[in-house]
Amino acid sequence: MKFIVTHPGSAHKDDFLACCILAHLHGVTIHRREPTEDDLSTPDTCVVDTGGIHDATLKNFDHHQFPRDAPPQCALSLVLRDLDIYDDALAFCPWLRPAEWLDTLGPNETAKRMGIPRSAFSELNSPIDMTMLNRFAAQPVIQPGEVLHQLMCMVGEDILGYVRSVRTRLNFLDHHCQWWNLDSQLPDEDPICVLFLEKNETIAKDPSFAVHAYITEQNRESQVHALVYPDRRGDGYGMTTYEDCPRLNFSLIENEADVRFAHKRGFVAKVETTAPERLKELVRMATVIADK
Hints:
With 292 residues, the chain is α/β, with parallel strands linked by helices. Helices cover 39% and strands 16% of the residues. The protein has helices spanning 13-26, 37-41, 75-82, 86-92, 96-105, 107-114, 120-123, 127-138, 147-176, 211-217, 276-285, and strands spanning 3-6, 29-32, 45-48, 54-55, 60-61, 141-142, 177-182, 192-197, 226-230, 237-241, 259-262, 268-271. Helix 1 packs across helix 9 (147-176) and helix 5 (96-105) packs antiparallel against helix 6. The radius of gyration is 24 Å and the shape is elongated.
């Protein structure tokens, strides 16, 4: 790859992030100008968010020529598709879909789809975003070794690293998780569904990483009530409610001898036991018995 070309003028999140990923992958200069015919006709130049052509074989990643009723996709989407990680990025990066909407549909339609007021975009706008986009827009050439180029490479590396590591973790979890269905203390209530993660050196540093993404991929969001996973600060296990499930309150087990800590608000506990049957018993003991 010789260099990257993207449009001059104002910069948006989609073209900036697309260039971040490509800068990380290729380590080349970024030019902010309109592309030439040579740029568009050779695969050794990445043309991003300009040029009126989407042709991944020639590394042209523009979406502006798509029909009005096309699915919302931006330059970043096209780069991710070329890397064959678009579906995973869409599943694991909740910010990607709104970024596509903002760039292709505008803030009013995006706010409507997100169920938020239009003013929320200004209220949530980060000064970090503003500085990075403004510096990117103001610099016609960004050379390798310059601070901005280095920062962009870091952003691109982190996006790719995160998406790929989540996929690796999901494949791992598929072989090292168990689904427990524990009988409720009341006969007319559904069982308590628990995702149990086995101890393993591979995940010792961050055992809960990607667990929520795994639950989503398994279509279990509406079923699971609690997570039980290895405690990275000790030899025991952590227990937490899933999405603040009201059926469990772990403060109810705070006086058990093998419970090291139970939060007063009931959403998390740390226990010393590693025996699955005892872990199941503690979860049952934390079940809230609703008033009838």
